[in-house]
Amino acid sequence: MLRFLLGAVLAVLAAYGAAEAWPLVAGPGLSIDSPENGASYPGGIVGVSGTAKRAAALTLDGAPLLHSEDGGFSAALAFPRGGSILTFTATDRFGRTVAATRTIFVP
Length: 107
Fold this sequence. Notes:
Structural class: alpha+beta
Distance between the termini: 75 Å
Radius of gyration: 20 Å
Number of domains: 1
Number of strands: 8
CATH architecture: Sandwich
Number of helices: 1
Mean pLDDT: 90
Low-confidence stretches: none
CATH class: Mainly Beta
Helix content: 10-25%
Strand order of the largest sheet: 2-8-7-4-5
CATH superfamily: Immunoglobulins
Oligomer: single chain
């Protein structure tokens, strides 16, 4: 009976450790809500928003983009006429990165 109890306790501790370690193993996550890929913005003002999970740093075309503690970000940016390719990059504290791109057009 004691072996069974000890085995059950160790299994619970192992499961808890795996659940707590998952964010360290998973790396950063990036979800872009706006802008939509291929969208047109006649005024040139583009709202960017989304979520960067487990990210220590977030950039848009190499420039820092502020994000909240829960990973949410939003900003309104002005773009010149023509097409632009936006590259969002999230980096975690271990240097692992994930990127997402969006193409927009300002007539």
